[in-house]
């Protein structure tokens, strides 16, 4: 037996009956020879980690636009925190950790520059609309490796697509959906406190009482509740669920919608709209890969793919190259 086959047999004998077994994957769009060392889901994870889109996450906004200090989250550090929480839950429930990690690592690959402000802007101006989970699937299926895609398994693609709402085909995907919320609520609280936008005394009493008063306590409470109450589906104790939802609602009102950190978002929308409109009118100036998409699909689709894939600082650079006069010597 190969090492991969031995790993598959270990999965068969040790994982939960609801777990997704690598040997029973629905497979890839393009059949390929299996690795001797790694299972199909391990290969998915490795392909995502080595992708260009994954590397660009380090320069994409999570919540706070262009923070001046090093300790605020980026889209990359958010992704790593989601993967850590998701793997903890998956291991405790004896689900497939490799599939869980692959979904978690890939779930935000399609996110725009400047976070949800960029997502809203593209959704408003692109005739195809824009949702980052659908764009993440498009990235791994069609855009990575100069159009070849990563040829991921069906289960990984499903988990990435469904990570916002849950209800996908696997429990591993639902674990990532839960871990995503756990991660962003708690690290955004920490960043908001660091930025002087939020004071710990403002967090609702019920949230502190049922979940705990620190990031570690809150994450531990919710993760333990999921592990202790999930059977056929991923869920938590009703009191913990209620407190967790109250904390999410609080963050929307206090931070995500109304905080001083969001006052710069109108500039993001102008920035993205101006670059999008420019390349829609001058599609021949995009890199050749996106010009081919424009030729084979349409210009709005190609421009949307180009802009969505940019990092924050690259979008600013492109904008300045186009619209800000450069200096010159006589």
Please provide a written account of the structure.
By secondary structure, the chain is mainly α. Helix 2 packs parallel to helix 5 (97-106). The chain starts with a helix and ends in a 7-residue tail after the last helix. Helix content is 60%, strand content 0%. It has a domain at 39-262: Orthogonal Bundle (Hypothetical protein af1432). It has 16 helices and no strands.
Short description:
This protein is 60% helix and 0% strand.
Keywords, separated by commas or semicolons:
Hypothetical protein af1432, 0% strand, 16 helices, 330 residues, mainly alpha
Low-confidence stretches: none
How many DSSP E strands?
A: 0
Main sheet overview: none
Oligomeric status of the shown chains? single chain
Could you spell the SSE succession in H and E letters?
Answer: HHHHHHHHHHHHHHHH
Structural class: mainly alpha
Query: Cα-atom Rg, whole angstroms?
Result: 21 Å
CATH class of the domain at 39-262: Mainly Alpha
Q: CATH superfamily of the domain at 39-262, called what?
A: Hypothetical protein af1432
Please state the average pLDDT score: 94
